[in-house]
Amino acid sequence: MGKVQDCFPMINKKETAVRLKCFMKWNHLTPRDIQEYLGLTCVQTVYRWLEGVNIPSVDNLYALSLLFHVSVDDLLAGNRKIVRTSDCYKQILRLITYYMKREEAA
What we know:
The protein is an all-alpha fold. It is 63% helix and 0% strand. It has helices spanning 4-7, 13-26, 31-38, 44-50, 58-68, 72-75, 87-105. The chain is globular, with a radius of gyration of 14 Å.
């Protein structure tokens, strides 16, 4: 039998942070822009998401998905296998992978 992590879906905070950074960059948005859009009291919350310390709440993920015109699943990185096959989604994953490699190299 496999590990619990293999069976139970889990969110990877660091990879989710990379995805948020990518979507923000593609949309020319700063952490302050996200703070104002979501009505957060301080910008540190957004920085914690971008550092992979925390992830946005379900409400904030939903709002961000609307802002970026993607699904909540597109924002989250987890351990489950991806079943989508659309060309747009494949392109998003390729770009996210590219940016993740750049982050690691920096």
